[in-house]
Amino acid sequence: GVSWKLADHPKLPKGKTVAMVVLDGWGEAKPNEFNCIATAETPCMDSLKKGAPEKWRLVRAHGTAVGLPTEDDMGNSEVGHNALGAGRIFAQGEKLRTDLLIDVIMNSCVMIETSWSVIVHFSAKLVDLALASGKIFEGEGFNYIKESFANGTLHLIGLLSDGGVHSRLDQVQLLLKGVGERGVKRVRVHILTDGRDVLDGSSVGFVETLENDLAKLREKGIDAKIASGGGRMNVTMDRYENDWNVVKRGWDAQVLGEAPHKFTNALEAVKTLRAEPKANDQYLPPFVIVDENGKPVGPIVDGDAVVTFNFRADRMVMIAKSLEYENFDKFDRVRVPKIRYAGMLEYDGELKLPSHYLVSPPEIDRTSGEYLVKNGVRTFACSETVKFGHVTFFWNGNRSGYFNADLEEYVEIPSDSGITFNEQPKMKALQIAEKARDAILSRKFDQVRVNLPNGDMVGHTGDIEATVVACKAADEAVKIILDAIEQVGGIYVVTADHGNAEDMVKRDKSGKPLLKDGKIQILTSHTLEPVPIAIGGPGLIPGVRFRNDVPSGGLANVAATVINLHGFEAPSDYEPTLIEVADK
Ligand code: 3PG
Ligand code: CO
Q: What is the mean pLDDT of residues 63-79?
């Protein structure tokens, strides 16, 4: 059993209110016209940077520092919040066979320390390993869906992209090849176009690649086609129940074969819909592919199998519920086919959803949140809907619910729905800040944790002007929280989960904006930039400062830091704390 008792920190006191502020999508980069954070008025964040140099630094928020396969992988909120909360770059050591471990060691720049437990893989790498070893085709989940291959159709639903945040095209390709070799007779792919983790317009190339793979299956006598599609922000991939209509539009197209747009060919569909004014990959309307008689080629019917191939959970939980739950009242499903459904991963360990999956998810245990609550730290967490699960579910190691409801309160502020966030770039920053302020002033909590989504959610729209407004709003929210901390004699930690708003243009290797047809290419995705972390507040005892012996520190080092600021020593296997207390 886990020993939950944390040792007292030799120098740092207990009982200070600690505000833990995560600015979503807020990286550090040189000021220029594409750096919305530098352009925006951000007096509060500026003062933290210009203040005491030993209380502000940068930490790594991408690549292997957050458990991603390579240093070319931009950070994302899932792995960012996992690392912030779990204090370790999460390991799947025990689950892998030694030969696979060796493969991992050879093929990824994962830092190996003395114990296996620091070898870390998040979902993307777990799926890679399962596909590379073929284990994915031997597991319970695959055997379950395989039962339908003889008489039914296999439907694959997911994000068609190589963004590597929610899914990866190369994994879909391997999956298709694998089912082709294992008796599948009929395959239908329901695509969701990206443009958010990858450049807008890249959907066309991804559809071409997929069509090639489907043609290869057809050469082998397998009836394989794209059956429906739509942009990820418009169809299927909502999260945290922000807008069930998004999932409904997906259901109508994928299951019922109904959509406002019909095409006989997916490439033509994407090209035509993209030609509409202001169209972009993220928001393409739903479409279905029909045969020459106008009949949809791939509605989901009794006896079929379905796989949702995204590995990341947040935007799959809702579709998983709609596919799996018998009692379901979020929208009228009209027809509920009897199917065998498996997720690429299990998306929610508490809900056991879905009940079948192809790859076991990473097990992130002993998070800082759980330790702190078990050591009596009363915790408040808040964000608006679109990031609420980030400061709760992801923070707590992809676990929903409270550790101890008597000591915790999680507050969700409803996000605007049915708009793109550049229309309301201030989002709910003020409301989140006010909730945090009230929680701090109430003195009922020892930790008050928030996520301010603006930089990220508006940054993803690619609207530079709106992103500047968004950054200003986030800065104002930070100010409100810091003022409250001042009033109660508390401590603040302000950081971010990954970069986004600090760079809005696609660049070449030398850093120059990339031109396409003479125009710059807007970068809607996250970045590889480091993020700031600042500590301060009247509750910080004299001498507390950032150490200078963890120069490559990353988000995972923040958990031990925060545990220290609550007056405890961090567990010994956590990544080292960023702070020390200098003797005066
Ligand atoms: C999304 O889901 O919105 C993006 O793909 C990733 O953004 P996030 O990691 O900041 O949530
Ligand atoms: Co984001």
A: 91
- Compute the CA torsion angle 467, 472, 475, 476 (nearest 10 deg): -140
Q: What are phi and psi of 182, to 5 degrees?
A: -125, 35
Which of 366, 228, 348 lies closest to 289, judged by CA? 228
CA distance 533 to 530: 10
* Helices assigned H by DSSP within 296-450: 317-324, 368-374, 385-389, 429-441
What pLDDT does residue 121 have? 52
What is the best residue among 165, 393, 394, 523 to mutate for testing ligand 1's pocket, by most ligand atoms within 8 Å of CB? 165
ipTM: 0.99
pTM as predicted: 0.93
Both 433 and 523 in a single domain?
Answer: yes
* 336 lies in the same domain as 368: no
Q: Of 331, 359, 387, which residue constitutes the final position of a domain? A: 359
Dihedral class, residue 244 (left if φ above 0, else alpha if ψ from -120 to 50, else beta): alpha
CB atoms within 10 A of CB 336: 15
Residues with CB under 5 A from ligand 2 (ion): 456
Å from CA of 526 to ligand 2 middle: 6
Q: Which sequence positions are flagged as catalytic?
A: 77
Q: Give the whole-angstrom CA distance, residue 295 versus residue 271.
A: 21
Residue 97 forms part of a structural domain: no
Domain boundary among 302, 332, 359: 359
Give the side-chain half-sphere CA count within 13 A for 567: 14
3-state secondary structure 140-159: HHHHHHHCCCCCCCEEEEEE
Is 139 in the same domain as 78? no
Q: Enumerate the β-bridge partners of residue 230.
A: 192
Interatomic CA distance for residues 471 and 469, integer angstroms:
6
Q: Tell me the one-letter amino acid at 510.
A: S
Check whether residue 354 and residue 371 sit in a common domain: no
110 within domain boundaries = no
Alpha carbons 382 and 392: distance in angstroms, whole number: 8
Evaluate whether 124 touches 168 at the Cβ level (below 8 Å).
Answer: yes
Residue 390 CA, closest ligand 1 atom number: 11
Q: Is 238 in the pocket of ligand 1 (CB under 6 A)?
A: no
- In which domain, by residue range, is 322 found? 123-359
Pairing of strands 531-536, 491-496: antiparallel
Summarised one tens digit per residue, pLDDT across range 407-435 is 999 999 999 998 999 999 999 999 999 99
Average pLDDT of the residues in 544-551: 97
| Inter-CA distances, 461 with 199, 423, 500, 527, 562, Å | 11, 10, 11, 14, 32
Kindly state whether residues 333 and 369 are assigned to the same domain: no
